[in-house]
Write a structure and sequence with these properties.
binds fe (ii) ion; five-stranded parallel beta sheet; 404 residues; 5 strands; Hypothetical protein af1432; 2 domains; Rossmann fold; alpha/beta
């Protein structure tokens, strides 16, 4: 296998030495180059292309945001990471569009290795150069919400309590309100009003809370932007309904808690790519949706013709870079074409595929192209006999599912 090339940029010699030590243990996989300024980095990049660039945020003369923007313009297919300290949080907004992932300083070998590897695996999985170029060209890519990273970080500690997670959520009043609304919704059917956030987190579970925080904060990043508010609201409703339906399907299969959580998360995020493409060019996107409805061409096909990639690919690509679990990334990537899976068994992909299709009023029996339940796939994984039961359970959720 060819070695991949990664460029590290940091003005502090000590940090560079530390990174050099870390990367020495990965030298069979990665060829690393270390430079101390943005200018030197661009000179290196102009000489030979890199697969990934990992840059410090605060540097004299050219900071990380400027550097990665320049890298994006020169070599859009290069994966771009910011290695940031705690104090850089308020600068992160400046990196939107140019940065794929933030790594916290000090960076541990495992984190660095898995982030680089995951990026690489995804590059292979979603390898088409057209997709990478399409994603890299998009200017308004959302960034991984810091609240989510904080939750992931806290949950790494096995002693982390639900009270701790509840207090993190409480810092965001609108997320707190959404969580209470969710736990009190018909979907959970508790039969009494829960008004305490800690109780809500206990009830939902930390994984659900984490996914909710992630998708809520992502949607927030698009508010007040170019996407019409009505479309944003419709997509949020659809995403939430698909998440609830996905979890219901997984629980009917008596899937593990982990698989149920993955199904919920993937359901919430399955159309993330639609937000990204719609924000890129709202008028063109509305046109594609109308054309798909009118002419019966699958939306994915029209998106690919316009943007070079479709929403499922774009969303999955970003989620993969953010380090979401592979089953979630797979479910998002293949929710319109589940037969392309490498693992023909019930998975989050199955739940999201059926949940999404069921959320389209015309899913059965004469579905519109691109949104039908794929019976060949369900038969291949031995689930065709369960479809009817799933559909009626989803209908009984009464989520008023509508389709974007
Ligand atoms: Fe979709
Ligand atoms: Fe969808």
């Amino acid at each position: 296998m060819d070695k991949k090339r990664v460029l590290f940029v940091d003005d502090e010699p000590m940090v560079l030495r530390m990174l050099e030590r870390l990367m020495r243990t990965l030298r069979d996989e990665w060829e690393s180059v270390f430079v101390d300024s943005g200018r030197a980095a661009l000179a290196e990049i102009d000489r030979t292309p890199f697969d990934a660039v990992v840059s410090d945020m605060r540097m004299p003369s050219m900071d990380g945001a400027e550097l990665l923007t320049a890298v994006m313009e020169r070599q859009p297919r290069t994966i771009r990471f910011i290695l940031s300290g705690h104090a850089d949080r308020n600068l992160i907004g400046r990196c939107i569009g140019a940065t794929h992932q933030f790594l916290a300083k000090p960076c541990e070998l495992e984190t660095l290795r898995s982030s680089l590897r995951r990026a690489l695996t995804l590059q292979n999985l979603l390898q088409q150069p057209a997709l990478q170029t399409a994603v890299a060209r998009i200017r308004a890519l959302p960034v991984l919400p810091t609240l989510y990273s904080e939750m992931v970080e806290r949950l790494r500690n096995p002693r982390c309590t639900t009270l701790e997670i509840a207090s993190l959520v409480a810092r965001d009043p609108s997320l707190a309100a959404q969580s209470l609304k969710l736990v009190n919704s018909a979907f959970f059917g508790i039969g009494r009003e829960i008004s305490d956030l800690h109780e809500a987190v206990n009830y939902l579970g930390v994984e659900t809370m984490k996914s909710l925080a992630l998708s809520f904060r992502i949607f927030e990043q698009f508010q007040g932007g170019p996407i019409p508010a009505a479309l944003l609201e419709r997509l949020w409703q659809h995403s939430f309904a698909t998440a609830a339906a996905s979890r219901t399907i997984a629980s009917l299969r008596e899937a593990t808690r982990k698989l149920q959580d993955e199904s919920f998360t993937a359901g919430l995020l399955h159309d993330l790519g639609k937000l990204i493409l719609a924000a890129e060019d709202p008028a063109a996107y509305a046109g594609l949706e109308a054309e798909s409805h009118r002419g019966g061409t699958p939306l994915c096909q029209l998106e690919t013709a316009r943007f070079g990639a479709h929403h499922a690919e774009v969303g999955a690509y970003l989620l993969g870079l953010w380090g979401l679990p592979t089953p979630v990334v797979e479910a998002v990537a293949l929710h319109h074409e589940p037969l392309r899976t490498a693992a023909p068994e019930f998975a989050a992909l199955t739940a999201v595929h059926v949940a999404n299709a069921s959320s389209h009023p015309d899913a059965l029996p004469t579905p519109s192209p691109g949104n039908k339940v794929d019976l060949v796939y369900l038969t291949a994984i031995g689930c065709d006999g369960e479809l009817e039961g799933w559909m009626s359970a989803v209908r009984n959720l009464g989520l008023g599912i509508n389709s974007p």
